[in-house]
Specification:
The protein has about 280 residues and is α/β, with parallel strands linked by helices. Helix content is about 25%, strand content about 15%. The strands form two sheets. A six-stranded mixed β-sheet has the order 4-5-6-7-9-8. A four-stranded mixed β-sheet has the order 3-2-1-10, covered by helices on one side. Strand 6, helix 7 and strand 7 form a beta-alpha-beta unit. The mean pLDDT is about 95. The structure holds fe (ii) ion (2 copies). The site of one fe (ii) ion (FE2) has 6 residues, from loops.
């Protein structure tokens, strides 16, 4: 199906379907041609049941759905009957996705052969490591202490458990090593579309209202991945600041829907799928 004339590689993220208005947005998402693929760059929902509902609905409609986890999928929120934490929770989500036919970061990277291809579509799970710190805060500990002092602390600190790793930063380091190896071993002839919940470069976080929050938004370790791994485009979310930016000539697409209080303020209606390939006209 991927070779269908006119098929598109589309993307969205941060569906946050715990909000009823956002659930309605997901119910209204449809492919534009039967061969369209959909990249979902994390923060589908907070509970496993909601994640499954949304990805299942999308997998029934799109020729292929590719998912990278956000921080919200990895929370263990009070009230979710699935009480798994950390790696066990992630692996459970991967199993549920596989049952739905959804591609995860643990699966072979699929090749998009439609217009704009062939490209290797690589969903990534990397987390963050507090390396994006304000000037003068030299350690992750100092950055976290400052965040607590000013009262801008990501809920991950309370709900995203790294078990069995000692910290989210340690989990991030393990994910970086594993993912870097897989990307380095890929068929080098193919460019990539990298799908990660977080931007791979720090620049998009410079417009955050609270710059101290950038420590929960990615890692310095991926600063050159868009070049090293020959990215035709990078797809991310998390910031809830949907836009297109260019870094070293590579197109970065922030594709988030975000919370109703956020999308209500925007001039464009929520839930428009972003076209990744073929590239939109300049
Ligand atoms: Fe989000
Ligand atoms: Fe997020």
């Amino acid at each position: 199906m991927a070779g269908d004339q006119g098929a598109r590689l589309l993307a969205i993220s941060d569906l946050h379907i715990g909000h009823p208005e956002n659930r309605a947005i997901v119910e209204a998402l449809h492919p534009q041609t039967p061969g369209d693929w959909l990249l979902v760059a994390g923060d589908v929902a907070d509970t496993v049941a909601d994640v499954e509902w949304a990805l299942g609905l999308l997998a029934d409609r799109f020729a292929k759905v590719v998912w990278a986890p956000g921080n919200h999928e990895l929370w263990t929120p009070p009230g979710d009957p699935v009480t798994l934490r950390g790696v066990a929770r992630y692996e459970h989500l991967v199993q549920r996705c596989r049952a739905l036919g959804v591609v995860t970061p643990e699966d072979p990277y699929p090749v998009w052969t439609g217009v704009g291809g062939p490209v290797l579509v690589a969903p990534l799970f990397l987390l963050y490591d507090h390396s994006w710190r304000p000037e003068g805060l030299d350690t992750p500990e100092a950055a976290l202490a400052e965040a607590h002092r000013v009262g801008v602390v990501c809920t991950d600190e309370y709900l995203l458990h790294p078990d069995p790793y000692p910290s989210r930063s340690a989990w991030c380091a393990a994910r970086l090593a594993l993912t870097e190896r897989r990307l380095a071993e890929r068929d080098g002839a193919l460019p990539t579309v990298l799908v990660n919940h977080y931007p791979l470069v720090r620049e998009p976080t410079r417009v955050l209202r609270y710059p101290i929050f950038a420590q929960w938004c990615g890692t310095e370790a991926t600063a050159d991945w868009h070049l090293r791994f020959d990215a035709a485009a990078v797809v991310y979310g998390h910031l809830h600041i949907p836009r297109t930016t260019w870094h070293d000539g590579v197109r970065f697409e922030e594709v988030s829907v975000g919370y109703p209080r956020e999308w209500r303020q925007r001039p464009t209606p929520p839930g428009r799928l972003r076209r990744i390939l073929p590239p939109p006209p300049a």
